[in-house]
Design goal:
about 200 residues; mainly alpha
Length: about 200
Amino acid sequence: MAFCGVVLCGFCVGALQKADLGVDPFTCFVTGIANIFSSTYSTFYLILTGLLLVLVFVLRRHYIGVATVINLFFTGVAADGMHHLLDILAPHPGLVFRATLMVVAIVFACLAAALYFTADLGVSAYDAIALIAAYQYKLLPFKYCRIISDSLCVLVGFLFNVTLGVGTIVTALFMGPLTQWFRTHVAEPLLAGGQRAVA
């Protein structure tokens, strides 16, 4: 669940980049920083995630695990790979294709997050921030903590001259609630069923 969730998340990031209607909030931030330095998404994903990882280690190291390492090294690579593949398959996509790609990518990104959150083998450093705020400090329910962290990330990305799109706004507002829905109705039952099968 953890590996599939992380790789699927990377694919969704690449698809959102190709749709060019606005990427997810953290990607918005990472892409802006990468553009400033004329570098790639995967390079600055590693740098910025590494910095957040230090913060998470100090606040709540429980969220650092094997899935954190997988996320650190595979998400950016999967995103670049998916973007490159879509460039080959659909070099000049129309608006309908891009809009469809955006919706599908957002939905599956939420499913991906729910899978590796529920696996409880660690999460990405960015995802851990909302989880820590919700479950350790009990500031607000997770979905609201995620909306706040995503919105702040969008604001920072905007200040770094990233053009916001409908996909960015939709993700910032709905990724938290939709991820929670997938976690409750898909990921947790899937994990429970797998544990019963093993037992």
